[in-house]
Amino acid sequence: MKNDTTTQSRRTFLKATALTGGGMILGIHWLSGATTTPAASGLDLVKDTYVFNGHIKITSDNIIQIMSQNPEFGQNVKTSLPMIVAEELDADWKNVIVEQAPFDLKLYTRQFAGGSQSVKTTWKALRTAGATARQMLREATAQFWNVPLEEVTTKAGVLYHSKSEKSVTYGEMAAKAAEIPVPKDVKLKEIKDFNIVRSPRKNVEGINIVTGKPLFGLDYRQKDMLIAMVERPPAFGLKLKSYDAKAVLKMPGIKKVFTIQVFPEKYERQIFDTRTFNELVVVVGKTTWEVMNARKKLKVEWQPITTSIECVHTFSSERDETIPAGLESTDNHYLKMVERSAQPATELRKDGDPETAFKNAAQIIERTYTAPFLAHNMMEPINCFALVTDTEAFFAAPLQAPEYAEKTLATRLGLPLEKIEIQMTRMGGGFGRRAYAHYMVEAALISQQAKAPIKLIYTREDDMTYGIYRPSYTATYRAALDADKNLIAFHVKGGGVPEHPIAADRFPASAVDHYLAEGWEIPSNITIGAFRAPRSNFNAAAEQSFLDELAAAMGKDPIEFRLQLLQRAKDNPVGKHDNYDPDRYAGVLKLVREKSGWGKPENAQKSRGVAAYFCHNSYAAHVIDLTMKDGEPVVENVYSAIDCGIVINLDAATNMVEGAVIDGIGNAMYGALTLKDGIPQQNNFNQYRMIRHHEAPKKVDVHFVQNDIDPTGLGEPPFPPVFAALANALYKATGKRFYTQPFSAELERRQGD
Amino acid sequence: MAKFNLKINGETHRLDVDPTTPMLWVLRDHLNLQGTKYGCGVAACGACTVHLNGYAVRSCQLPVSTVKDQEITTIEGLSANGDHPVQQAWLEHDVAQCGYCQAGQIMNAVSLLKLNPNPTDEDIESAMSGNICRCATYLRIKAAIKTAAPK
Ligand code: FES
Ligand code: FES
Questions:
Q1: Which terminus of chain A faces fewer neighbouring Cβ atoms within 10 Å, N or C?
Q2: How many CB atoms lie within 10 A of CB A2?
Q3: Which residue, A442, A472, A227, A462, is CA-closest to A330?
Q4: Using one digit for the tens of pLDDT, what is the confidence trace for A495-540?
Q5: Contacting residues of A for B25, CB less than 8 Å apart
Q6: Which CATH architecture has domain B2-76?
Q7: Residue A360: inside a domain
Q8: Where residue A178 sits, what CATH number does that domain have?
């Protein structure tokens, strides 16, 4: 296997652990080629390696190897998860090298990238793994020196006995320590004693990235590997009728053309089994360029799909999903959404008597917000390497949810789970898209049929037009005020194609006496998937813009208004109240108020907007300052306040928030995937506008709330409130409210007026 | 198919390939130089940026037949061990998130600094606007270019 420099295959790993049974092994050459931290560069031969558990191996020459268990897509878990292990191990970070762990649920739990959960769900297990190994090292050393265990201390990878002034490195004690029975109930460090966690540490993959090492799925190769591409309908609502590959087969380098069926008839889809097209024409050849070219010579006839119903299993339940026939268009979606939102919807939460409160209101404010489909557009297009034989299957792929992918692959291929091996490559972005592993099933079926190792590659056009988009949503917010301009009732009715976004128990639920949340849905054949902070990315945009307008109508400062609502939710919550913590929510608002100098006379002239949101267990607030230049908004400064509990790696966390802010501005301003007669109207970056260097804010000033709460996650929470902070700043700059995304289109429409 | 002698990263490579093949795929598929990335294939993202005679070009738009004896440098050839000042500045600012776009960003930045050793913020923004970073690390890219500029 070429280019397999930083990943350990599961088979090798299992062989090693089987040998040890948790104890000692000799002569396993783990490190061949691994250069994941600077400490490891120049290291070309490793002697004896001792396995402590699935996370830690220590060599006799004092290299601490830490396995990073979760898939890496830019959230920097490959650095932050090992930092947690190293902290409790009390290792010297200089001597740590990090490897991508194999996908193996016997060794690790929740090997999943998504939901901002990587740190939150592994925190305890990783700390325990580190502390356990440290305890084994101390016990072995106490025995070796014949001193009481309590007298053996550690610091930065060295064991000490101060009375006798003895010291020894972890590496020197590794052989003995690995033989110690695994201790139970080890004590974890006091948070105040952390010295790796909470400090800034460089990305362990940094040097490999800046020197162009083959880290990504698209870079993976094997000897005699062929390249495969798939041709599928040009529009949603079509399927394959027939094809003629004569011309293709005459093209240089082309080996085979055939069709595959992704799932069999009546297949019951599991949670991430979304696929847009079921029957695909496959072109297999020697090189990417040859296959790309030959594919253009395919003659394919398509036909309309008929309406179907599929059984879909979610995390906790199953439901029937209707996939309607027809060629859908964005214009038509918007018309249908207006019609549908006027009809009754499903009640999701009701507190008090909202109907009467609205009837008795002195003033009612009602606004409707709308957003289009969004494509994920990860920079690395969808791809997967597969080598499938009659008895086993190997994959190397950028993917977020290997556990779910493995089950689906096993079912589809009729192989036991143990015969499926998945190597998680680094991902060139994910944003939710790579949880949907249809492309792995496709690659598997192609390899099986071609009887060869193949790499399936989506072109950018394939990637952008495949579907699995962020849904298109709309929501109408209503607020009832009494004669003294007090908020007495709040109503949100939201829907979308094909799902509604409403999270009924979120703020401002519990903060208003009379509250109603409703949802409705319009079935569609456009497929959807999780997109950075699913649903929240729309809800925050709409709700936080509405609260801004509401505060203005009530004559209140927008931050003060939110704080008053939060105080109410804390002191005297209405109805069920277990969703958000009013104190932490208020905390980010207060912090951003302070850091941005909100309300200070020197900032009075600025066009600034504020928004906050809670999702995925963490809290975020932003203040955006902008100016208008030649009719275009220029974002000058962004102030961000985040409460995600303990921050593992301050610099990387800051990077993440900066990125989320810019991503939010980009999607709010420009993001849109529109359809006409089932055909996506954008298929590459020359048509789909992405935020670029000159459109990024001049400065993003990131602050974290300091507390000792266990980490609650960071990838998604800063993203949703950006949309509304921008909309609210745009209002200050232009005097107009922005209700429809993307805002650049709205600006253009208005300039045309 | 046609035979070409290509000068890449200081070495001459002989290969027999369809003359219309873009250098991007020659590098990735034929020469196993995978640092140069595919992002769009239509000159709209900059992921595939390499140097032709020392200056940035989009390798997805560069047919192998047009290269002739011009020198090509890829991210792998920028320095022996990642010690080019621009690479070092990238590490100092810990720019990368997913990292996929960064080889293209670095190659473009090196070319920018060669043409304009002391770029203003606006110079950087406009010179770099052809390179998309989906993770949106733009501020760090700018900071890294400014760090590398005097070196
Ligand atoms: S791949 Fe060449 S510019 Fe995008
Ligand atoms: S770092 Fe992910 S695309 Fe730039």
A1: C
A2: 12
A3: A472
A4: 999 999 999 999 999 999 999 999 999 999 999 999 999 999 999 9
A5: 287-289
A6: Roll (3.10)
A7: no
A8: 3.30.365.10
